[in-house]
Design a protein that fits this description.
Blueprint lengths: L1 E10 L6 E10 L5 H9 L9 E12 L4
Antiparallel strand pairs: 1-2, 1-3
């Protein structure tokens, strides 16, 4: 099991407000970009009206699968 920590850089195109948030997701195998984007599209914490302008991998940690 791996825990991926991502830093999302968001901007509201209408108000020009910016926000940075950190999200974590777990995966049994390596997480492919398409799966990451699918998970992010379903993430409920991302503020309405904001768009993704940048993404950094903050940390990937491996844990036990037991």
């Amino acid at each position: 099991m791996r825990t991926y920590t991502y830093h999302l850089f968001l901007r509201n195109p209408e108000t020009k407000d910016c926000d940075v948030m950190t999200v974590k997701t777990d995966a049994e195998e390596y997480l492919e970009a398409t799966e990451l984007f699918r998970r992010l599209s379903l993430h409920e914490v991302i503020p309405k009206g904001f768009v993704l302008i940048g993404l950094n991998v903050g940390l990937v940690t491996e844990g036990s699968t037991a």
